[in-house]
Design brief:
alpha+beta, four-stranded antiparallel beta sheet
Length: 405
């Protein structure tokens, strides 16, 4: 402990991580707990299956009088004492709940498992939901919550879908109509029980929110369920802005997509209005930046472990000063083996003998694919990344137009 930590009433984030771990130990939590300093969270369990994001806990802890800080810690660590999931499905099914998870969370676990040479227990334990989200099962009791993994399904002898059907019934039993008006025709669900976003799996609920016959739904974070009519342009814009505010303030992001109900099923929706669609794409770029950024260190560590000389390109985001919308860009350098994120723009860099002699041409991603698709090998994982070992020829580069920034 540094001298400033001793006297300060506001601990550093690193110190706070240890404070939470020590408190959890005093409450009887004996599972492995790892402090992830980069993402400011705790990973609990052998596979880090239970994640406690510390941003909100840190904010509340620092804002509380010293005498009330243990109460704050108790609130946030109450679910860390994991109970074992029963080996028989009959005993487990009353506590199963569906959980819509960001696809990036599973990728984080996959990469961590590869770095640590540990088996990945959450593959084949989820169902596809959308481009940026998956559907998993939680075993949820009064004192703890744990994600159900592949071995649990094997022990139970049931499929993921059969167990999910049971969980959906449990969620429906918990769901009364609880809606509030946020303004401009946008309605929010207010259940506040960690399954607000999961209620997108109950299609009839959107209709009960009194948003007409063509509702559009967003679930930007775990605690948010937003609905407005598809015809309400102002409401659609409001939902996008509100979604980003929730993501920035609350964390626990889920999905940056809009959804509609088609033939009784929830499907992704692209707004017909071009301005709304552009604003939604900007939000999706914001979410992608978080995923790409959080994985960069992991990928670099994995390549270093495997002694592979690969440069992990940065997903760079810049804002248009006039529109406020986000655009993404990555750099592809000649003679450098690179893992490229999928971006709106690609800066193709030909190094010179000095920095002043470097040549750069910026083109769209579609243009890059049109001249160099055979050079771009898509690799496993989410979000999309492409391994490139060679570089387009001068003739190929000259065949596509440059895109001004």
């Amino acid at each position: 402990m540094g001298i400033f930590d001793f006297f300060s009433s506001t601990p550093s984030t690193k110190k706070f991580g240890q404070i939470v771990i020590d408190f959890a130990r005093r409450q009887g939590v004996d599972q492995l707990i790892r402090f992830d300093e980069a993402d400011f969270r705790l990973l609990v369990g052998e596979n880090g299956s239970h994640v406690l994001n510390l941003h909100n806990a840190y904010r509340d802890y620092c804002a509380s009088p010293k005498k009330q800080r243990d109460t704050v810690l108790l609130k946030y660590t109450a679910g860390l004492k994991l109970e074992g999931i029963p080996d028989d499905f009959a005993s487990a099914k009353a506590h199963l709940m569906p959980s819509v998870k960001p696809r990036g969370q599973g990728e984080y676990l996959r990469l961590t498992s590869l770095i640590q040479d540990k088996p990945m227990s959450y593959d084949e334990a989820s169902l596809n939901f959308s481009d940026d989200a998956v559907l998993m099962l939680a075993y949820d009791t009064e004192h703890s919550m744990a994600l159900v993994n592949r071995s649990n399904f094997e022990t139970w002898g049931v499929s993921v879908q059969d167990a999910m059907d049971v969980a959906l019934g449990n969620l429906r039993d918990r769901t009364a109509d609880k809606f509030v008006e946020l303004g401009v025709g946008v309605v929010a669900g207010v259940w506040d029980d960690a399954y607000d976003s999961s209620r997108i799996l109950l299609p009839d609920l959107a209709y009960r929110a009194n948003c007409g016959s063509d509702p559009v739904i967003m679930v930007p974070t775990r605690g948010r369920f937003l609905v407005t009519p598809a015809s309400n342009k102002a409401g659609l814009f409001f939902m996008i802005v509100y979604a980003q505010e929730c993501a920035e303030k609350e964390g626990r992001t889920v999905s940056a997509h809009m959804y509609k109900i088609k033939n009784g099923q929830v499907v992704s929706y692209t707004p017909e209005d071009t301005d709304v669609a552009a604003s939604l794409k900007s939000l999706q770029t914001y979410y992608l930046a978080e995923d790409y950024g959080s994985q960069k260190d992991l990928l670099e560590a994995l390549y270093e472990k495997n002694k592979a000389d690969v440069f992990v390109a940065t997903f760079t985001v810049f804002k248009n000063k006039q529109t406020g919308l986000l655009t993404s860009l990555c750099t592809w350098t000649q003679s450098v083996v690179t893992l490229l994120p999928k971006t709106d723009l690609v800066a193709l860099l030909i190094p010179g003998e000095s920095e002043s002699e470097h040549r750069t041409k910026i083109i769209t991603w579609d243009a890059a694919m049109s001249i160099a698709a055979d050079l771009m090998q898509e690799v496993e994982g989410y979000p999309a990344r492409y391994l490139v070992k060679n570089f387009p020829t001068a003739e190929q580069l000259n065949s596509v137009a440059e895109t001004p920034l």
